[in-house]
Specification:
Elements (H helix, E strand, L loop, with lengths): L2 E7 L3 E7 L6 H5 L6 E6 L1 E7 L3 E7 L2 E3 L14 E5 L6 E7 L3 E7 L6 H5 L6 E6 L2 E6 L3 E7 L2 E3 L14 E4 L5
Function: Crystallins are the dominant structural components of the vertebrate eye lens.
Pfam family, one: Crystall
Family: Belongs to the beta/gamma-crystallin family.
Length: 176
């Protein structure tokens, strides 16, 4: 179960809209021109800068975000969102080449630096077996982030990245 409230103005002011499920286009659904603040009341959510779950992604857990800088946004552009489903266990396989070729690593826990642990920082394919995960472009959970739900990702473009660079990964849990 999830709940998020969007506000048109900073500081939780102006027109507001509350949702409890995924939304392909916030502007079509609520007719908000811009979203400048929000409250995550229940669950973990991923916000997208473009409709149809495209563009930069921002993962948010329960809390108050009085302006887009609080969710580390580069702008106030939020056009779609998804609730991240709760999962009890997590398992992901990472491959150094496209189509599940090359060296494979399996994770059930977070990894703050793929470079330190495996001496490389590019991944070309992966398979999420259980739970949801976040890949970060840089070590220590920094940089561009990508939400991965269970499924197959034969190439880095399948998870929305423009390069194969991955520095760290984290499980999405209730406390994200």
């Amino acid at each position: 179960m999830g709940k998020i409230t969007f506000y048109e103005d900073r500081g939780f002011q102006g027109q507001m809209s509350e949702i409890t499920d995924d939304c392909l286009s916030l502007q079509d659904r609520f007719h908000l021109n811009e979203i400048h603040s929000l409250n995550v009341l229940e669950g973990c959510w991923v916000l997208y800068e473009m409709p149809s779950y495209r563009g930069r992604q921002y993962l948010l857990r329960r809390g108050d975000y009085p302006d887009y800088q609080q969710w580390l946004g580069l702008s106030d552009s939020v056009r779609s969102c998804r609730l991240i489903p709760h999962a009890g266990s997590h398992r992901i396989r990472l491959y150094e080449r496209e189509d599940y070729r090359g060296q494979m690593m399996e994770f059930t826990e977070d990894c703050s630096s793929l470079q330190d642990r495996f001496h490389f920082n590019e991944l070309y394919s992966l398979h999420v077996l259980e739970g949801s995960w976040v890949l970060y472009e840089l070590p220590n959970y920094r940089g561009q982030q990508y939400l991965l739900r269970p499924g197959d990702y034969r190439h880095y473009r399948d998870w929305g990245a423009t390069s194969a660079r991955v520095g760290s990964l984290r499980r999405v849990t209730d406390y994200y």
